[in-house]
């Protein structure tokens, strides 16, 4: 035992000496200490997992074999706690693509383990729960990463002007998840197994968030009330007109380039704005409007939106004649 301790100390001294060969590396001592502490915690977690894992008494070699294979899988070099911490750090630093890559590696390790266990004994919920518990922090990582993605999506019209690469990264992550969803669903058809949390449907969630963002954008344009400004409705409608045109111009010229063609992002946004406008006009019409306000609302709908340059701009955004026809058919009357 003493000889083992001496070897461990000698190895540690050699490792520390290798880390601190230059004067500038002294500034990173605390960083090195934290990294080694994470590795230590990872090893301890794996040892704890092994100690807590109990095999039920079996009588035959055949019935013992699945448990042995499962144990062998679990003891493979998967540094889950360390990878979780590294991924969390990447998320906090905004390095979303790298964070997602590590998350995918973790999910792949967990899913493969669970699939192997499912193939050996699909009714063994104990082993399944053991794997799921061991990778428990991974679900929190996925949720935290998703929060960051949705924040970028909510501000996409701003982000695309300031940092389009960030938006492209978010779209790439969503595309990765869509491919994994399809692969997992295909495997479910063949084997009956699908990992926890699948399908994530992040693409669908992204469009839902965009739709809510557009609705909030339209609703939030009312800055005045009748009590504070008799022309509140005229101002409100003018702000709507300006915001919608500005947003769609950005969507067509910049946002469209950040999404794959099959997303058809501009046409989707055009429909979202149209639906949001329709809802807002109905809300305004349901209010107790005065006579002059009713005239202002009708004038805006009939002239500004349907017949004036406003409608022409929406039309002109659709460059191809076929797209214009499709959009005209899709946009229902306000």
TrEMBL record:
Classify the source by domain of life. Answer: Eukaryota
InterPro entries, per database record: EXOC3/Sec6
**Which Pfam families does the record match to this protein?**
Sec6
Q: Which GO terms describe its biological process?
A: exocyst localization; exocytosis
What's an example of a GO molecular-function annotation for this chain? SNARE binding
GO terms under cellular component: exocyst
Which PANTHER family does the record associate with it?
EXOCYST COMPLEX COMPONENT 3, EXOCYST COMPLEX COMPONENT SEC6-RELATED
The name of this protein is Exocyst complex component 3
């Amino acid at each position: 035992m003493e000889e083992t301790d001496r070897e461990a100390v000698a190895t540690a001294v050699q490792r520390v000496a290798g880390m601190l060969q230059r004067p500038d590396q002294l500034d990173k001592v605390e960083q090195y200490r934290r990294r080694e502490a994470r590795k230590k915690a990872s090893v301890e977690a794996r040892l704890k997992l092994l100690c807590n894992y109990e095999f039920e008494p079996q009588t035959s070699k055949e019935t013992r074999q699945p448990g042995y294979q499962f144990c062998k899988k679990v003891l493979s070099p998967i540094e889950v706690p360390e990878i979780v911490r590294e991924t969390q750090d990447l998320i906090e630093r905004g390095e979303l693509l790298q964070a997602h890559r590590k998350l995918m590696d973790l999910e792949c390790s967990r899913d493969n383990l669970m699939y192997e266990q499912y193939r050996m004994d699909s009714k063994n919920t104990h082993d399944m729960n053991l794997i799921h518990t061991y990778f428990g922090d991974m679900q929190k990582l996925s949720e935290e990463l998703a929060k960051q993605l949705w924040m970028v999506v909510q501000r996409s019209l701003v982000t695309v002007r300031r940092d389009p690469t960030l938006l492209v990264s978010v779209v790439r992550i969503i595309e990765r998840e869509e491919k994994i969803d399809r692969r997992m669903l295909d495997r479910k058809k063949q084997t009956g197994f699908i990992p926890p949390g699948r399908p994530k449907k992040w693409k669908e969630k992204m469009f839902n968030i965009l739709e809510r963002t557009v609705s909030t954008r339209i609703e939030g344009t009312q800055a005045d009330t009748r009590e504070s400004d008799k022309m509140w409705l005229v101002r409100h409608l003018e702000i709507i007109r300006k915001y919608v045109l500005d947003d769609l111009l950005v969507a067509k010229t910049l946002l469209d380039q950040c999404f794959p063609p099959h997303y058809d992002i501009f046409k989707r946004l055009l429909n979202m704005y149209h639906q949001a406008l329709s809802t807002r006009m109905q809300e305004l019409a349901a209010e107790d409007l005065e006579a002059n306000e009713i005239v202002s609302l009708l004038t805006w709908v009939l002239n500004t939106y349907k017949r004036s340059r406003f409608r022409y701009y929406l039309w002109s955004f659709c460059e191809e004649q076929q797209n214009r026809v499709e959009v005209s058919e899709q946009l229902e009357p306000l």
